[in-house]
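Memo to structure team: turn this sequence into structure tokens by end of day. - J.P.
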Amino acid sequence: MKPFVPKLVYFEPEALSYPLGKELYEKFTHMGIEIRETTSHNQVRGIPGETELARYRNAKATLVVGVRRTLKFDSSKPSAEYALPLATGCMGHCHYCYLQTTLGSKPYIRVYVNLDDIFAQAQTYIDERAPEITRFEAACTSDIVGIDHLTHSLKKAIEFIGATDYGRLRFVTKYEHVDHLLDAKHNGKTRFRFSVNSRYVIRHFEPGTSSFDARLAAARKVAGAGYKLGFVVAPIYRHDGWQEGYYELFQELARQLEGVDLSDLTFELIQHRFTKPAKRVIEQRYPNTKLDLDESKRKYKWGRHGIGKYVYVDEEAQELEETIRSYIARFFPAAQVQYFT
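Reply from structure team:
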């Protein structure tokens, strides 16, 4: 698929006082993209659309360039100590995505141009914990790879972390647009993860993202560039023929990665889940979705913050975990499965 290009761009005036802000303004002006001004990246008004659904779809194609004022990083446990705030929002239309509810009425994509401030804060966190390793997750609230061909913020972050003694970086993507990241000086301190799934899940629930085959080809490129590699299998979803679909995933993954050094390969396994608020939003935004959101078939599980979610009943979840782990053991016997949740 072609790299993402916004249809509409908003700028905070202050963003133009930063080198990246100026660069992006010139780039989008040259591309002929409509540019508007907004007083705050948190209060963007005037996104076109006659209905709420139309405004939502237009917002997913809107980029907002702003300044990150809150420099207290969120926690990203258990996978990392902190979330690295380079961007918020995603151009993909994954029906099940948790950003449907966490971003609420702000589904537009935000990028932050005060990178020096963000990296300085990251260095502070690293120094506070030294000589312990401090891990940063760069894709908590966005698919940062999907927009980095425009900003190169992620590439700068990779090289910033690569120059530290005790910092480590990780992120996950559904996009194939990795070529500009292959020559980054990562020094082995970044884990590049791909979100993968069966062809059924990608075809029916992940519109606006790279294909199954394109993601696997990109993973081979990344591994060849010396990055630590990982895969997030999520959401693991029980569809007709799911056993065969996931078997094909790992079989093809092994074929694509043949000859690549996989001595430090990781997998993270996440079963499909949803909340009641998410269900309402999903059904409004994707009214024809095939996603099974029937609470009567699920188990209710309390979350860490008092918000419950619906997961598969224990017997079905156990079957999912045992099946996926058996495929990994067959095709990637040296890989580490970090968790199933």
